[in-house]
Specification:
The protein has 15 helices and no strands. It is mainly α and 421 residues long. It has a single domain, classed as Growth Hormone, Chain: A (Up-down Bundle).
């Protein structure tokens, strides 16, 4: 683990970028910004070409399902792997494979292939590889920083992802309008190789306590689940993540393209801007959360973020004015950053190191099962009833969920005493 520089020991709680003073984390952070920006180039191109080929919300939802379900299926193997092997080595292999797969999208598009099933097939392969990368990525953050700046590092890691969510779709919208989706796919592929080069400069981390174990990965995963299900704090995080995945993730993955086409009736650039506002909202709230998040109860942050998420979705369905739509996506982005960072930080601080990879893999599995499940349900419903009706129902359910979390005391499990862990 990296040594704490003297300047960090004197850092104030109001310092929102404390973790970036650690050189290795700083390199990793900027590499992630590049990679995730590239990922959002593909994230905007993929639903665009699917809708262009099919004009169907169902097909858009199916493409998301194909991308994310494989990530869930490999979770029982990827989590134990992140606990037993070098997380850096896992990431090095995955970055190369993901780069090759992303570039294959560009090659297919430039070759004139317009069969939706081809791109769904590529999404399935991409999802399997990404399923191994994500738990290692999440757990690797804790390898690069001391525990006392972990919340700041996780906040910054979430900020990086959402800054990419702001940058990538903006650039992607321009690329779609000027050069076509093939260039967006190519940009994503190149970004993975840039991360690979950065990872080569980072030091090897300490061996895992489980490195010498010979029992199967499934056995280790089962033991991790046996531990997790006895911990109310962990299960609360999983339930919250599931709500955001099922109710909220389809807003970006399915509905924004449908709102752009059917409600706001805007072109590629304004579609990209709508996608970007989600990340812009998250980036805007991140400095406040990094500076002052520790001064609030985590239960309060969790409940308020779920409620604001719902309010943002209800604001979106209340208007046909594009700029109010931008504001609503901005609000949802703020809420998502607070919820994701609060939950991620709570889990990382709560769990012991030997099960960190498995607990985080299960956390990611909740997202990677819930998001495609929500998309495969909400896509056809949007075709049948309209995206505005579907999003209105989801926003209302967010408000109901926030009330249940607060009244039942479920959110209060986030307010554990860290010194006891």
């Amino acid at each position: 683990m990296s040594e704490i520089p003297p300047e960090i020991e004197k850092a104030k709680l109001s310092d929102a970028v404390t973790a970036l003073k650690i050189r290795d984390f700083r390199r990793f952070w900027f590499a992630g910004l590049v990679s995730n920006s590239g990922g959002w180039l593909q994230g905007i191109a993929s639903p665009f070409i699917m809708y262009e080929m099919t004009e169907s919300g169902t097909w858009v939802g199916a493409s998301v399902f194909a991308l994310m379900i494989p990530m869930a299926l490999v979770g029982p193997f990827a989590g134990p792997m992140a606990d037993r092997l070098s997380r850096r080595q896992i990431l090095l292999v995955c970055e190369v494979l993901l780069g090759i797969i992303a570039i294959s999208n560009a090659v297919c598009w430039w070759a004139g292939i317009r069969e939706p099933l081809v791109y769904i097939g590529i999404n399935i392969i991409y999802g399997f590889v990404n399923g191994y990368a994500l738990p290692a990525w999440q757990a690797y953050v804790a390898d690069l920083v001391p525990r006392d700046v972990l919340m700041n590092a996780i906040t910054l890691n979430s900020t990086q992802f959402n800054a990419a969510r702001a940058i990538g779709p903006s650039v992607g919208g321009v690329l779609l309008a000027v050069a076509g989706p093939g260039w967006a796919f190519l940009g994503n592929g190149i970004s993975f190789f840039l991360v690979f080069v950065t990872l080569l400069t980072l030091p090897a981390t300490d061996p895992s306590p489980l490195a010498g174990r010979t029992d199967s990965q499934l056995s280790q995963f089962a033991k991790g689940w046996a531990y997790a299900k006895t911990q109310k704090t962990i299960m609360t995080g999983y339930v919250a993540a599931g709500l955001v995945a099922v109710l909220g993730a389809p807003l970006v993955q399915v509905h924004i393209i449908l709102f752009s086409e059917k409600v706001f009736q805007v072109g590629e650039f304004k579609f990209g801007l709508l996608m970007s506002m989600y990340g812009i909202g998250a980036v805007t709230i991140a400095p406040w959360l990094a500076s002052f998040g520790t001064k609030f109860k985590k239960s309060s942050l969790l409940v308020s973020s779920l409620a604001v998420y719902g309010c943002g979705e209800l604001l979106l369905v209340s208007t046909k004015i594009y700029f109010i739509g931008l504001l609503s996506i901005f609000v949802v982005g703020c809420a998502h950053l607070v919820m994701a960072t609060t939950t991620n930080t709570t889990l990382q601080l709560f769990v012991p190191e030997p099960v960190r990879g498995r607990v985080m893999a299960m956390y990611l599995m909740v997202f990677t099962i819930g998001a495609p499940l929500g998309s495969i349900i909400q896509g056809p419903l949007a075709d049948q009833f309209s995206p505005r009706w579907v999003v209105a129902v989801m926003g209302t359910l967010f408000l109901v969920a926030a009330g249940i979390f607060a009244i039942s005391g479920r959110a209060a499990t986030f307010d554990f005493n860290e010194a006891d862990n």
